[in-house]
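question for whoever is on the cluster today: can someone run the full assembly for these? two chains, 434 residues total. i dont have access anymore since they changed the login thing
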Amino acid sequence: MATYRLHCFAQSGNAYKVALYLNCAGLDWEPEFVDFMKGGITRDPSWRAANNPMGEAPVLEFEGRRYTQSGAILTYLADTTGMFAPGSDQERYEALRWILFDNHKFTSFYATHRFMNAFLPDTPNPAVMAFLRGRFEAAVGVVEKHLDGRHFMLGENPTIADFSIAGYMFYGPDESGIDIKADYPHIAAWMERMASLPGWKAPYDLMPGDYIAPRAR
Amino acid sequence: MATYRLHCFAQSGNAYKVALYLNCAGLDWEPEFVDFMKGGITRDPSWRAANNPMGEAPVLEFEGRRYTQSGAILTYLADTTGMFAPGSDQERYEALRWILFDNHKFTSFYATHRFMNAFLPDTPNPAVMAFLRGRFEAAVGVVEKHLDGRHFMLGENPTIADFSIAGYMFYGPDESGIDIKADYPHIAAWMERMASLPGWKAPYDLMPGDYIAPRAR
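^ ran it for u. tokens below:
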């Protein structure tokens, strides 16, 4: 068994945040498939009791303990391995600030927009989609402006803040319905830098789970 | 000038998370009014440049630096003052996990639901409100279950995780459109414990800004 076991599935950008970190950090890890997409396993009470009462992937297993919430996992891994760790106390809070922004204002709305766009059997309500898109645009604009003149979120070097924000960026516009690379040039350049890191792989190459073609809307 | 200055306004539950912490911790702080509700000041480029490029309250001023994102501020204050700090490294990640859950799954949808319910001039789209309410219900159910048998989020003692989750709980159902106390008994009992902490005050008694009567929907 590998040192780290990550419960994950290919469509989860929150899982991808951690999987990509583990792979780029060169840590000894293996995936454990979570059947969310077809099996809805994270709603199962016994899965929740064994893995995560919050009912979410990813779950990181390490030395018999289970860690959840991608931002807490990334913080834990940076603290304990030093890989992609912020360089000072001030940078530590700066990384946490962006991880919280990602969770609060970006992932919460963008990931939901993508899921409803690509994977819901019924056509999503247009007012809900417009609402989520508006929230996404406000948040992504903040990131785009921040990356103007910076190589990575905290400056010259990639940190856990970049892995958090990258989580949903590498799923294509066929899924998200939003062409980030075309619309946000500073984010597009940062994505190129992220994709150049040793160990980088696309979500569907890094995590288990069948590819599910997005619905045409 | 007080040791800590918190840029805040009475309607902001994210600001309340920090204001309530500062007051219950007995720290020397003063509020600085942010005219969000009537003036929309956080959208002003000069306000953003001076205070927070993310365009959000709260902002904590301390020793000439500015800190933002309530979860990062709470973590910083617990780390540096020891007040309501998690007791061990494991508890530290556990607190962060709940702070992220709060931001990601609870505040993001609940605060938006409340704002649209109480303060938007136009009647909000019913499909959007139903969507937000569904998201809220999934998240609040996780907190309700977690508090069954626990005094506070991490066990016997209150920590920063409680202050984060409390942020929007103490605004009434007239604003939120949701009667948390009536529907979630474990959360209601925990709210009583929070309100019994020395220094506890309701949002409108703790932070500056005119009371704005919620719209009847």
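summary bc i know u wont read the tokens: Chain B has a mean pLDDT of 95. Chain B touches chain A at residues 53-55, 65, 67-72, 75-76, 90, 93, 96-97, 99-101, 103-105, 107-109, 112, 125, 127-128, 131, 135, 142, 145-146 (CB under 8 Å).
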